[in-house]
């Protein structure tokens, strides 16, 4: 897929949560191809992916193994990224887990786990990045990944959709609070992106057809389809856009 070039992203310090697989891997590659200095955190070993990206782009990302749900691990990774690449000026909160669950079956432990990865980690990644941006006196751009799932009122993962809605509220409040410091905060809400995980677990033929029938554009979304919109939000080209939710879903939901 052809991507636009964003010169201001060259040599920019980027930090991506969950940047080693799925949509996150596509984002890592997209920023690398812009010439950015990319660091990402993930729980699973991504050494092979790092080598692959260096060979494909000529630009080697920094992988830091860690758990975004543990603040000490998350902050340590972000500090390591800032030390290697300079203060983080673009944060992409991408890590999430849309584990399906029946509302009547969940317990407090599952609630805590789901919220910790799908909402809590977003707040504290933003907090730590903003502290670094303001300390360095730099403007910054934050992209928080949400989902159209809560806009559709989807059943089968109520805690996940609650977190998605919370991400939008968090995004709007942070945009208002830190706009005077030159920090922009936007959300990006993808539709059903067919990552390998989705294909393995939930993308049966009937579900795929039903969802495609709801789209205006009759073509399934791939991870690469999310890269361009993310680069746009992270670039100065969108410098007067903040507190917004950009939907990229092939036309399932409408906003405005």
Q: What does this protein structure show overall?
A:
There is one protein chain. The chain is an alpha/beta fold and 256 residues long. It is built from 9 helices and 7 strands, in the order E-H-E-H-E-H-E-H-E-H-H-E-H-H-H-E. The chain has a 7-stranded parallel beta sheet, sandwiched between helices. The model has no long low-confidence stretch (mean pLDDT 96).
- CATH homologous superfamily classification: NAD(P)-binding Rossmann-like Domain
Q: What sequence of helices (H) and strands (E) makes up the elements?
A: EHEHEHEHEHHEHHHE
**Helix-and-strand structural type:** alpha/beta
- Which quaternary structure do these chains form? single chain
| CATH architectural designation | 3-Layer(aba) Sandwich
The neighbouring-strand order within the major sheet is 3-2-1-4-5-6-7
Distance between the termini: 29 Å
Overall morphology: globular
Helix content: 40-55%
Query: Which CATH top level class fits?
Result: Alpha Beta
> Which fold name is given in CATH as the topology?
Rossmann fold
- What is the count of distinct domains? 1
Portion of residues in beta strands equals: 5-15%
Low-confidence stretches: none
Cα Rg? 17 Å
Largest sheet: 7 strands, parallel
Give the mean pLDDT.
96
Q: List how many beta strands DSSP finds.
A: 7
InterPro entries: KR_dom (IPR057326), NAD(P)-bd_dom_sf (IPR036291), SDR_fam (IPR002347)
Family: Belongs to the short-chain dehydrogenases/reductases (SDR) family.
Protein name: KduD protein
GO molecular function, one term: 2-dehydro-3-deoxy-D-gluconate 5-dehydrogenase activity
